[in-house]
Amino acid sequence: MVRQIRAYGVTNEAVLAAMARVRRHRFIPEAYRGPGDYGDHPSPIGFGQTISQPYIVAYMTERLRVRPGMKVLEVGTGSGYQAAVLATMGAEVYTIEIIPELAEHARKVLAAEGFSQVRVRTGDGYEGWPEAAPFDGIIVTCAPPEIPRKLVEQLAEGGRMVLPVGPSGGTQDLITLRKEGGELVKEDVLPVRFVPMVPGSSRPAR
Ligand code: SAH
Predict the structure, then answer these.
(1) How many whole angstroms separate alpha carbon 80 and alpha carbon 192?
(2) For residue 202, what pLDDT is reported?
(3) How far is the CA of 5 from the centre of ligand 1 (A)?
(4) Is the pTM of this model over 0.90?
């Protein structure tokens, strides 16, 4: 799996080492496990959701420029796999999942795999995690139609946000943004296809 990710152009050794270390199959619910657990494609985790293709997980992690001790917010915990990769790289991880069963699954697997320091919240990612803000990095693994305003507010100056933005059902732009002088500067864009970020109680920002 790591050889393939490297061949696709991810060069950050810390990212590749973390991807080699985290046991991806453990995050896939047993009913969905199989020989393709380390293949370069998304894996189903139930409730119509998937863990992203390993290359995309690696790409997003690389773009976030994770450093040990960095405070990172993930929106869309899903299986907990991306959170485990971030934690392996030394990030202090806060992650939010809107489907309670998935949040519970992620909490259990993260604890069993030695990542009990990852904080998992069941809730609406559009709200972010105000009590823990500001974050040095924000990674969104479901696609909102527009950049959620509260997440921008909770990003630290100099921090990076990596997220797919665009309509559900079509392709989206996976955007890397950096906050500089309160403004967002676009660093990178890749066309992707993600599950939608569903509106919770709140409305997406305009
Ligand atoms: N990062 C995950 C994969 C996430 S799939 C992993 O490594 O396994 C996207 C997830 O985003 C799904 O679990 C979905 O339920 C969740 N999601 C969708 N809308 C959300 C919202 N508004 N707030 C929080 N999570 C949301």
Answers:
(1) 20
(2) 53
(3) 22
(4) yes
